[in-house]
Design brief:
Helix content is 29%, strand content 22%. With 340 residues, it is of the alpha+beta class.
Length: 340
């Protein structure tokens, strides 16, 4: 028997000699309510103590991350908005919180306090995927020939689509003032420019810098193609104030893919299930020998994995669920031998 009092703004639980009061604003409130409905004492105890569980999980990943009074802090600074919500959610679901911790760490390496504050706002306004190494995935419109819409001088083409002419083109200085460099790093096209040449004034909405945007902003910009950018939060310089923090300027990004366009927007918007698709193979973990052949996964499991992917499950989650690697899950998704 679990005794509790449900108030207008909180629920108070009397359990195992202790009193727990959980406010409606707390991330664990709904979890506690659902646990109380089961009348299962163990489930209720786990729900009311989830704050400590989250705290333990976070500090195990990074000592700079702490939790106090249902708030997350990084080196004493409160983590707000969507970032905080997503950290609580991934831990509640039993998923890996490390990508979000890596994102925080990368963001806090940004030497501009103003840029960090604005990046928090951008992350809160736009639910964009975070990669396992803590980078942000965003969008960019480009011309039919993959050059930037504004100047037509910077090639923004995924390296996997490069021709011999493209390779020759990136050897030349880029940008209106030769301020932009295009190189190939870890198999990805990388575009960069000196940070001190990127306009950090958020009130100057159209200005110097390498531009990226959210899904919502794509309708407000021209360009026949849409490419996917992988951005280190440390390289974000400013988030202009127009269009509700839906676009930004940075000093460096990688072009990791192109998305099929349907009308003016992507046919398939970026989802959390995409986060592992853009990690270079050089940083993939080694695949255990026992998981490199089809025989170790049944036909039923393979079919179930593909169904879960269609429902939006991430590669990391499925790899953990089936005790295999992300690469194996990706091969099953793509029907690459021996999973064809």
């Amino acid at each position: 028997m679990v005794n509790y009092i449900l108030g207008n703004a909180s629920v108070t639980v009397f359990l195992r000699g202790k009193i727990y009061t959980i406010n409606k604003q707390a991330h664990s409130y709904n979890l506690v309510i659902e646990a109380l409905k089961t009348k299962d004492e163990d489930k209720v105890f786990a729900a009311v103590n989830i704050r400590q569980g989250i705290a333990n999980a976070l500090t195990a990943k990074n000592k700079d991350v702490t939790i106090e009074d249902n708030k997350i802090f990084y080196r004493g600074r409160e983590v707000t908005g969507l970032i905080s919500t997503r950290i609580f959610e991934v831990i509640r679901l039993g998923l890996d919180v490390q990508p979000m911790v890596n994102f925080l760490e990368n963001l806090m390496n940004n030497h501009s306090k103003r840029a960090v504050d604005e990046a928090f706002g951008f992350s809160e306004s736009n639910s964009l995927p975070i990669t396992p190494d803590g980078y942000l995935l965003a969008y960019k419109r480009v011309r039919e020939d993959y050059y930037d819409v504004h100047s037509g001088t910077v090639l923004n083409k995924p390296y996997k689509l490069f021709t011999e002419d493209d390779i020759k083109a990136i050897d030349k200085a880029q940008g209106k003032r030769n301020e932009v460099s295009v190189t190939i790093e870890n198999g990805f096209t990388t575009v960069s420019m000196p940070r001190n040449m990127v306009n950090e004034d958020k009130d100057q909405t159209c200005s110097e810098g390498l531009h990226f945007c959210s899904y919502e902003y794509l309708e407000h910009f021209s360009g026949e193609r849409i490419v996917v950018l992988k951005i280190n939060p440390a390289d974000i310089v400013s988030i202009p104030t127009d269009y509700n923090n839906a676009k930004g300027r940075c000093s460096k990004y990688q072009i990791v893919d192109e998305i099929e366009v349907e009308g003016k927007v992507p046919k398939t918007p970026l989802q959390d299930g995409y986060i592992n698709d853009y990690v270079p193979e050089v940083v993939e973990e080694a695949v255990p020998a026992e998981y490199t052949t089809k025989s170790k996964l049944s036909d039923y499991q393979i079919a179930k994995i593909r169904a879960d992917i269609d429902l939006g499950a991430s590669l990391s989650f499925l790899a953990q669920e089936y005790n295999t690697s992300r690469r194996t899950i990706a091969r099953i998704r793509d029907r690459v031998s021996p999973y064809n």
